[in-house]
Amino acid sequence: MTADNALQPGLVVATYGRHVVVESPDGTRRICHPRGKKNAALVGDHVLWTPSADEGTVEKVQPRQNLFYRQDEIRTKSFAANLDQVLILLAAEPEFSERQLARALVAAEAAGIAPLIGLNKSDLAEPFNRAWLRLAPYRDMGYTVLPLCLNPDETIPEQPMATQNGLSALDGHLQGKKTLVLGPSGVGKSTLINHWVPKAFALTNEISKALNSGKHTTTSTLWYWVDPAKHTALIDSPGFQEFGLRHIEATQLAKLMPDIRRHLGECKYYNCTHRHEPGCSVISRMKNASTAYPIDDNRYKIYCELFDELSQSRHW
Fold first, then answer.
1. 22 has which bridge partners?
2. What is the β-pairing status of strands 46-52 and 55-61?
3. First to last CA, the chain
4. What percent of the chain is modeled with pLDDT above 70?
5. Distance from the Cα of residue 57 to its chain's centroid
6. Residue-wise pLDDT tens digits, 169-221
7. What is the spatial distance between Cα 189 and Cα 164, in angstroms, rounded to a whole number?
8. Apex CA 234: angle with CA 161 and CA 226, to 5°?
9. Which residue segments constitute the domains of the chain, with CATH numbers given?
10. Which DSSP letter does residue 122 get?
């Protein structure tokens, strides 16, 4: 075993199956292979590695500040580590799944990572207005929701030129942070990445060529530096159809949903599940929209569905 002081530090900036691309402090990148399962690394991990010919070996993964991942009955899918925030990108059209949004937000809350919501295609007036209205409960919870137009050929009617595509406001939220861009396929993630990192496509091809991608699994996540000083980064993740939360206990769910969480401690019973108990403050506020901080009916349905799902026996 090599002593830690003889190892070289690096940042994982791409993953291809069990192979990773590690960036050294001087900016050079090389393919590395983990030494054993315990050293399997993710994008965003700080690692210690040793060179071997023109490649390298990951000897140690440094402790993580956080980890954003999803889990179903079959597998765990990790996105990235050591993040400052997650940008959940949606589009006004096609209609987004509020249940998928809720799941991603719960996962971010569980990992202690700040979430940010972007709603693309604000140039489509009617679909955008409908989608914006659907996101009202999330704005009421305190989540930042930004209107975006990621199509450079379109403008948003009746808005000043300086703010018409929302990119200026988004830029303010991205500066100095490491942001995972998350969302289903077709919402404009590639357009967003290419706006801040014009050479992103070339960088992806460069990594694929270096790996001889025909011999390796397609990449799942990629890290892009936005600025030369390397203070701001965007992490591109693959699209997804499902977002499992099996790593979360049903009894913890209410604490991870801000609209439910603000009413905890107000119920008649201390162990209230907010599903059927008499004297439940959550149910009361869901049924009475005139109360302070009412709970949206659809949000409550999502809570009940998730609670029932997470209460089921695990089969692994």
1. 12, 30
2. antiparallel
3. 34
4. 86
5. 28
6. 999 999 999 999 998 888 888 889 989 998 776 555 566 565 554 444 445 78
7. 19
8. 70
9. 4-61 (2.40.50.140), 67-206+219-236 (3.40.50.300), 250-311 (1.10.40)
10. T
DSSP-derived secondary structure letter, 245: B
> Can you give 69-89 as a three-state secondary structure string?
EEECCCCEEEEEECCCEEEEE
Cross-strand pairs, 179: 85, 234
CA 110, CA 104: separation in Å to the nearest integer? 10
Does pTM top 0.90 for this prediction? no
Q: Tokens representing 247?
A: 């790593």
- Find out whether 212 and 118 touch, Cβ atoms under 8 Å: no
Of 213, 184, 222, which Cα lies nearest the Cα of 14? Answer: 222
What span, in angstroms and rounded, lies between the C-alpha atoms of 295 and 259?
A: 6
Closest CA to 178 of 104, 17, 68, 21: 68
DSSP structure string for 247-280: TS-GGGGGGGSHHHHTTTT-SSSTT--SSS-TT-
Bridge partners for 61 per DSSP: 47
Evaluate if residue 31 carries a pLDDT over 70.
yes
Whether a cis peptide bond, with omega within 30° of 0, leads into 94 is yes
State pLDDT tens for residues 94-153: 899 999 999 999 999 999 999 999 999 999 999 999 999 999 999 999 999 999 998 755
Residues in the chain: 316
pLDDT in tens, 44-90: 999 999 998 889 999 999 999 999 999 987 788 899 999 999 999 99
Distance of CA 204 to the CA centre of its chain: 20
- Give the CA dihedral 133, 181, 239, 112, nearest 10 degrees: -80
How far is Cα 181 from Cα 41, in angstroms, rounded to an integer? 19
